[in-house]
Design a protein that fits this description.
InterPro entries: SAM-dependent_MTases_sf, SAM_dep_MeTrfase_SAV2177_type. By secondary structure, this protein is of the alpha/beta class. The chain has one domain: Vaccinia Virus protein VP39 (Rossmann fold, 3-Layer(aba) Sandwich). Helix content is about 40%, strand content about 15%. The chain contains ten helices and eight strands. Strands 1, 2, 3, 4, 5, 6, 7 and 8 form an eight-stranded mixed β-sheet that branches. Helix 1 packs across helix 2 and helix 2 packs antiparallel against helix 9. The longest helix has 21 residues. The chain starts with 11 loop residues before the first helix and ends with a strand. Bound molecules: S-adenosylmethionine. The site of S-adenosylmethionine (SAM) has 23 residues, from helix 1 and helix 3. S-adenosylmethionine binds next to helix 1 and helix 3.
């Protein structure tokens, strides 16, 4: 990992990796993750349930004929990466992973070595045009065909509401009808837990990483899908989106407590 430019000691990608039981994390990431888990012990379960939603959504998109994916905020490769899931259903599926974290990108590139149908690029979603103009992305993604745009567990790292909305709008702009948008997002709407420590948990990201963490409510998450047709069951809690056999059961009887809202929409 030496030589990787990273001016903050912990990153959202590696904190998430730790929550998922991965090994691509450093002491600062583990300390930040443990501080959060001490306040909110359910967070590793949230990560697991989010990852399960990502898998179901990718399977759904592939079943709808989507063969190319742009995965923004893709994270460090772990179990059930998008190209692996998509290629189980459509062997020629193409995927571009996009992340702000250089380690997430380099680990993805290592995993994808020799795979002509997938790559990883480093970019900040707050500069959506740079993503769309990226030459490597354009080699893999054909904008004349429907695209699956994945923004899973990433928009909550964009603190500015206008930046987050603009990014979604701009990334959707070149996508042809039949393209799909997949989003999951941290939310505490209606949560029954004691949220006294929420500010302190958010302070961990503010203090230790370059990506502060913000929660949004159902109306805000729904607003990203304005002008799209929402796929049933609409904007719901993670375990509620088209549950499948083998899903984690942590929040099945109390979905609000999962801490994540999600939805899939189709470009008209
Ligand atoms: N999408 C994967 C998933 O749901 O399993 C990984 C989600 S992980 C919680 C969030 C990822 O978003 C991290 O890898 C982080 O580096 C990335 N990220 C945060 N802010 C970003 C930004 N402005 N642009 C691109 N990626 C960003």
């Amino acid at each position: 990992m030496a030589g990787v430019a990273n001016d903050k000691p912990a990153t959202a990608a590696r904190i998430y990796d730790y929550h998922l039981g991965g090994t691509h994390n450093f002491p600062a990431d583990r300390a930040a993750a443990q501080a959060i888990t001490e306040m909110f012990p359910f967070v590793p379960l949230l990560a697991r349930n989010n990852r399960a939603f990502l898998g179901r959504a990718v399977r759904y998109l592939a079943s709808q004929g989507i063969t190319q994916f742009i995965d923004v905020g893709s994270g460090i490769p772990t179990e059930g990466n998008v190209h692996e899931i998509a290629q189980e259903i459509v062997s020629e599926a193409r995927v571009v992973y996009v992340d702000i974290d250089p380690i997430a990108v380099s680990e993805s590139l290592d995993l994808l070595a020799g795979n002509d149908n997938a790559t990883a690029i480093r970019a900040d979603l707050r500069d959506p045009q740079a993503i769309l103009d990226n030459a490597q992305l354009r080699k893999i993604i054909d904008f004349d065909q429907p695209v699956g745009l994945l923004m899973v567990a990433v928009l909550h790292f964009v603190a500015d509401d206008a930046d987050a909305s603009r990014s979604v709008t701009e990334l959707l702009r070149p996508l042809v009808p039949g393209s799909h948008l997949v989003i999951s997002h941290g939310s505490a709407e209606g949560m029954q837990r004691d949220l006294t420590n929420l500010d302190s948990a958010q302070d961990v990201y503010k203090r230790d990483t370059a990506t502060p963490f913000v929660l949004r409510d159902r109306a805000q998450v729904g607003s990203y899908f304005e002008g799209l047709d929402l796929v049933e069951p609409g904007v719901v809690w993670l375990p509620e989106w088209r549950p499948a056999a083998g899903d984690p059961q942590d929040f099945t009887d109390r979905p609000t407590e999962s801490g994540g809202l999600c939805a899939v929409g189709v470009v008209r």
